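**Fold in tokens:**
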Amino acid sequence: MAKGYWIGRVDVSDAEGYKAYVSANAEAFAKYGARFVVRGGDFTSMEGSPRQRNVVIEFESYEKALACYKSPEYAKALALRQPVSVADLIIVEGYDGPQPTDQA
């Protein structure tokens, strides 16, 4: 079964308000087994328009990634994030097929 990922790009307008969101999202992320792959950090924008923060969160499955976003626990956190940031967020299914190194 392929994993599921949240890929988010965020501009934060209120750092203190965003801290409240980060604190609140822990409940949903723990419940749905989220694991941060990328959480902020240095980046270089090679194409397109960057945002201040980039986040990649891994879930056991695409279904769990969707369920987390739609959960009442995350809804509480989302209500704190939306007034203090602008975000692009997609939920995408991982890929389990052949990789370039498999092509000998």
Summary: The helical segments are 15-31, 62-70, 72-81.
